[in-house]
Amino acid sequence: MRTFIYMVRHGDSPKEGNERTRALTEKGKLDAQRIAEVLKDEGINTVISSPYSRSILTVEPLAKQIGQEVIIIEDLKERIFTAENERISDSELFPLLEKSYVDPNFSLKGGETNAECQKRVVKVLKEILNTYIGKKVVIGTHGLVMTLMMGDYDLSYDLTFLHNTSKPDIYRMEFNGQELVKVNRLWESHRLK
């Protein structure tokens, strides 16, 4: 029986503030409505999200559209980069990501490694696949978390892939049991229409 997971990377969010509570910019809010439009005919059964505001707000319009509440799963949170939980600037983040992909066990003091984050989020994804067999599930997520989950199934989902994603973005993953069968990017094809 086929199960479909829709990875929805959160929309544009402010460049400063607390990692957990940063919301969406006006563009991010508009894109959240567009995501609901893109996925309206997919037959989504369940909407799950990271506990971070920007992820919840990105998938909330879709959840409302199908008459569901967003299910929050704490372990889908973004990788913890520092103990302070403040946003890291892009100029600091890109070298950190490079180091993290060269050495999956690298982290800043008080932070989490790529290996630790991947183990945490893949465990959740496998539980979702077991719980929602034959269903269509949206996961509101973050770029790195999404890439680490997808990369566990196919190594081509790597740092280059992450750098080529957009905010927001949508990837439909088709599973046969726990086996990844196919991936389609839905956001890019929508933007071209």
Detailed description of the structure:
The chain is an alpha/beta fold and 193 residues long. 41% of the residues lie in helices and 18% in strands. The protein has helices at 26-39, 53-65, 90-102, 114-131, 143-153, 159-163, 187-192, and strands at 2-9, 46-49, 71-72, 136-141, 169-176, 179-185. It has a 6-stranded mixed beta sheet. Helix 1 (26-39) runs parallel beside helix 2 (53-65). The longest helix is centred in the middle third of the chain and has 18 residues, at 114-131. It is globular and about 40 Å long. The relative contact order is 0.22.
Task: Describe the structure concisely for a colleague.
This protein is α/β, with parallel strands linked by helices and 193 residues long. The chain contains seven helices and six strands, in the order βαβαβααβααββα.
| Mean pLDDT value | 93
Biggest beta sheet attributes: 6 strands, mixed
Estimate the helix proportion, in percent.
40-55%
Number of strands: 6
Q: Which spans of ≥5 residues are poorly predicted at pLDDT below 50?
A: none
Number of helices: 7
What is the SS-derived class? alpha/beta
> What oligomerization state is this entry in?
single chain
First-residue to last-residue Cα separation: 31 Å
Order of helices and strands: EHEHEHHEHHEEH
